[in-house]
Amino acid sequence: MIRTCLMLLFWTMLLPIAAFVSLWTIATDNIRLLYKVGMWGAFTGVRLAGVKVRTIGLEKLDPQRTYIFMSNHASNIDPPLLLPLIPRRTSVMAKKELFSYPILGKVMTLGALVPVDRGNREAGISAVRAAADVIRQGVNMTIYIEGKRSYDGKLLPFKKGPFYLAQETSVPVVPVSIAGTHEIMPKTRFSIQPGVVTVTFHDPIEPSDFGTRECLMGKVRQQINQGLGERYRELNSGTHSLEASKNSESNAKGMARADANSEASPDAKLRNHTGSGAGDVSGLSR
Known about the structure:
alpha/beta, Glycerol-3-phosphate (1)-acyltransferase, six-stranded mixed β-sheet, two-stranded parallel ribbon, 8 strands, 13% strand
């Protein structure tokens, strides 16, 4: 508990600096300094709480490329651990209510964060389009693919919206496994227990290897599962992934012909996917 208080005290002391840099950011219309201060402060605070971080596979990433990072989520300390590790700047989705605050909302907009209303499907579709625009500007996107924290450290069902986003933007997807945060700070506990967290960046999945949305979902789930601790792994994840790949690829040609013959606008096509989860972007927002 003492280390947790130390982390919170450090973040509190950093607030005046962050406020000053925020005003400078608004005045100059440049987010770079604030982003660096924010990422340094987040990572340093967690380290002060006694959390050591071990990274695997970071060297596989090309800093010049844009990626969608899809990660599991078991603890509140996942974001301040993962986001500072990502090469270059990354965006996330945030509650739309936060954008209504004058200074905070302006800074979040400059940072290319995407507002989302979790309870509104039509707004969710707009959030997917907005996220696609951010990615096309060369900003990475980080998604906690389960949509909420896991109670037991095991993978929850994935949200479908992020996989539509991946197919819409055609940028590589990087599955990320965060192992150890469930023991350090589970969903049901406020205090942080010192320990070691392993963050594994798996091989990027190139757009040419996506297959269908279900196939991509299976590939991402299998890789994330492999990077979890043994007690948290799904024993049948590989089987499910293989079955999803086979079933998806068997229908790929028919789906491709249907897309090719469709004359609908991009917005109409996106709405057509809402029945299968394209509008569900809650996996992008927590």
